[in-house]
Amino acid sequence: MNDELTPSERAALRARIVGGAHGIKPVGAHRNAWIAGSVAAAMVVAIAGGVAVTSTLSAPEIATTPSPSPTVTAAPVPVPTPTATPTQEPVVLPRGSAPFDGACDNVIDGADLDAAAGMKMGRVGPDWIDSAATVRGGIECLWYSSEEYSAAFVEVGVFPDGQQPTNPALVQDPGCRDNYGRLLCTRQGAADGMNAWVRISSVRGDVVSAGADRVLDAVLSRISRYPVGVAATALPTWWSAPDCARVAEVIDAESLSLPDVTVEKVDATSGRDGACRVAAPSEDIYASWSATVSVIAGGAVNVPSIAAAGGQRTDVAGAAEAYWVSWHDGIDGGGSEVLAVSDGENLLLVDVPFNLLPAGGDLPRATTIAQKVLPLL
Length: 377
Fold this sequence. Notes:
By secondary structure, this protein is α+β, with helices and mostly antiparallel strands. It has helices spanning about 5-25, 25-60, 110-115, 130-135, 205-220, 245-250, 305-310, 360-375, and strands at about 120-125, 140-145, 150-160, 175-180, 180-190, 195-200, 260-265, 275-280, 290-295, 310-315, 320-330, 335-340, 345-355. Among the domains are: about 100-225, Protein Transport Mog1p, Chain A (3-Layer(aba) Sandwich); about 245-375, Protein Transport Mog1p, Chain A (3-Layer(aba) Sandwich). The chain is built from 8 helices and 13 strands. The strands form 2 sheets. It has a 7-stranded antiparallel β-sheet with strand order 7-8-9-13-12-11-10. This is DUF3558 domain-containing protein. It comes from Microbacterium testaceum. Keywords: Membrane, Transmembrane, Transmembrane helix.
């Protein structure tokens, strides 16, 4: 204050100052508030910055250049080794095999035969193996008296269990009976899974019964010396027996160069059930002619033995192979010529008995018959 002013002047001056102060806006308050806000903001920023800096300093350094990814080596996956599929062997079905290696000489010793019949005996029949018996796993053999005409015979059949001889006459109840004034005895026995049938007849009736026992014992004792017979397994492709009525429809006399022909079914008791006889009957016995037609289902198994027995290869239309072969009974000039025709599995036989017609006429006729019958099978 100015000490030179009078008290009244000083009072007036004080009044103006106080009055002017009341008219001034409170700028300072706003300014102080802005300053305080600025300081607070600065502190927040500073605090935040400090935290950020602190965090940055305490954290590990972050690489700015991408690091190469580590190479991951995959564990090898074991590849299973393919198991080789075993090659399946084709199933080979049995075609039939005969006991005694298919040889009648192995069935019984000649000395036993002679003693059983009371006289010298000799085998009768073809030199090849009988397919009809082989297909059933068996063998059939026939012997006749060789020094005295038709004085005795011995017949033997050996077949595996479940099979029977092809000749029904062999299958009779064991025992002895009259046979046209001669004694006929039959026997049956078994060994090693095989069954044997025996028939024997002789003018020496005193030896027949004991002879039948002797033959049976001898045959049974020899079975184990050879592989047993095995029957063939039937197949859908096996032929059936020819229908004689149909055979009669396709066979004509002109094609056989004969005046007339007849066809009839052969009696089953002959052991050739299902066979057909083609005949040219004549009142003149020297002009008659006949042939028997039969089928052996699965019979091709023994075609090699037919060739080995002297079979002559010949041509038959529709056949895989064919042989013309003959056999003699060695007793009284009996026997026949046979055309054996095969499709590779079955066997067709055209059997022509020896006759007095000109030589060479039988094969052409037998061939004609075979070619007409084959399409029917």
